[in-house]
Amino acid sequence: MLYGLSVTVSKDDQAVSRLREEAGCFVMITNVPQKGEGSYDSKSILKAYKDQYGIEQNFGFLKDPVIVNSILEFG
Questions:
Q1: Residue 41 falls inside a structural domain
Q2: Is residue 46 in some structural domain?
Q3: Left if phi > 0, otherwise alpha if psi is -120 to 50, otherwise beta: which for 67?
Q4: Greatest Cα pair distance in the chain
Q5: Is residue 6 part of a domain?
Q6: Which one, 2, 20, 40, 50, has the greatest CB density within 10 A?
Q7: Is 40 exposed, middle or buried (0-12, 13-18, 19+ CB in 10 A)?
Q8: Which sign does the torsion angle of CA 52, 54, 55, 56 carry?
Q9: How many Cβ atoms sit within 10 Å of the Cβ of residue 45?
Q10: How far is C-alpha 58 from the geometric centre of its chain's CA atoms?
Q11: What is the rounded radius of gyration, in angstroms, for the C-alpha atoms of the chain?
């Protein structure tokens, strides 16, 4: 026996447009100054914010129950 599948893919322009509007809006509040000492532009602040995910992922193993329990046993 041999089965076949015929599929037609079409784009829903209205749904795509709505999703693009939702994805295009990113609100972030910060107390980092825009001018002067210690200032950052919007692009740099957003990059620093997104880089935090990688850092948190790298240290996520510390929350692993196996690691936490072994630390508590020796502590």
A1: yes
A2: yes
A3: alpha
A4: 74
A5: no
A6: 40
A7: middle
A8: positive
A9: 15
A10: 14
A11: 23
CA-wise closest residue to 26 among 38, 43, 51, 12: 43
Tell me the two tokens of residue 42. 């919007």
Provide the domain count of the chain. 1
DSSP string, 38-66: T---HHHHHHHHHHHHHHHHHTGGGGSHH
The reported pTM is 0.41
Q: Is residue 60 part of a domain?
A: yes
Name the residue range of residue 39's domain: 13-74
d(CA 51, CA 64): 22
**What is the signed CA dihedral for 67, 73, 74, 75, rounded to 10 degrees?**
100
Write out pLDDT tens, residues 4-41. Answer: 999 999 999 999 998 888 877 777 788 888 888 888 88
